[in-house]
Specification:
19% of the residues lie in helices and 38% in strands. It has 2 helices and 9 strands. The strands form 2 sheets. Strands 4-5-6-7-8-9 form a 6-stranded mixed beta sheet, with helices on both faces. A 3-stranded antiparallel beta sheet has the order 1-2-3, with helices on one face. A hairpin with a 2-residue loop joins strand 4 and strand 5 (72-81). The protein is globular.
């Protein structure tokens, strides 16, 4: 069995199999098998964390949702909606080998020009940053942890 890196997230017993010389993981939200890339490893653990620890309802998630950025079609990793159906939390996941640089923050900020969420999160599974956006003052503030779902 291939070993995947330990993360700074609660361990989650993922359903993993080998098929066509590739490792695959069962995505319980999308109800399908996906190629288990290093980024997908982080995304699956982050989803589990948000559901189990932060009490985000499964029904309010959208994974790898399409969004239009100017003329480009992009994919957000994780969007969680609030109870009224508005985008609330946007998470950008990277592989553990990817440093969370300014470019990563610029990527998620660009995605958020379309979504206008209250909270932005970037994670490589080892480090996680969360910030709260204030649209009235056009500012953001880093907060200690991802908020629990209201």
């Amino acid at each position: 069995m291939h070993t995947f890196p330990s993360l700074n997230l609660p361990a989650h017993p993922l359903k993993i199999k080998e098929a066509e010389q590739k490792w695959q993981v069962f995505d319980a939200l999308r109800k399908k098998w996906l190629v288990l890339t290093p980024e997908e490893w982080v995304r699956q653990h982050m989803v589990h964390y948000l559901i189990t620890e932060k009490k985000y309802p499964k029904a309010l998630f959208k994974l790898e949702g399409g969004l239009r950025l100017n003329t480009l079609q992009k994919r957000s990793d994780i969007v969680v909606f609030d109870k009224t159906g508005n985008p609330f939390l946007l998470v950008e996941c990277k592989a553990t080998s990817v440093k969370l640089t300014q470019a990563v923050f610029e990527q998620i900020a660009a995605y958020n020009t379309t979504l206008k969420v209250k909270y932005l999160v970037v994670s490589n599974g080892l480090e996680h940053y969360c910030c709260s956006i204030d649209y009235d003052t056009h500012s953001y503030q880093f907060i200690a942890e991802i908020p629990v779902f209201e």
